[in-house]
Amino acid sequence: MARIVLTSDTIVAQSLLRLTNSIIATKQQCDRLKAVCDQITNNGIQRGNLETSADAAFPVGTGAAIYDGIAQIQTALNGLSATVSAIDRGV
Questions:
Q1: Would you state the pLDDT for residue 37?
Q2: CA torsion sign, 64 to 67 to 72 to 75?
């Protein structure tokens, strides 16, 4: 996608820039969370460890579903990255 430079101070442009910053921050937070979960689960091989680890302590039987959900969120945020990078001012 070509670079989109928003120069106006309209409410819509400002709102879009705030949303862009929120998506970037959320993606970074998700990447960090997924990295921790990967450490606990041996890169998703032992997803049940999220139930027994003191760092997670998810209810019994939910480790796999939660791990998979985090991975799905990360995939969706990765998809948004191309769109966001066209708008991002880096501030």
A1: 98
A2: negative
Residue with the two structure tokens 């409410």: 11
Q: Extract the tokens encoding 33.
A: 């969370």
* Phi, psi (rounded to 5 degrees) for 46: -120, 65
Cβ contact 77:30 at 8 Å:
yes
Does the pLDDT value for residue 70 go beyond 90? yes
**pTM of the predicted model as reported, rounded to 2 decimal places:** 0.84
Q: State how far the alpha carbon of 27 is from the alpha carbons of 12, 16, 17, 61, 66, in Å.
A: 22, 16, 15, 27, 17
| pLDDT > 70? residue 22 | yes
How many whole angstroms separate alpha carbon 58 and alpha carbon 24? 27
All residues at 6 or more sequence positions from 42 whose CB lies less than 8 Å from its CB, including other chains: 49
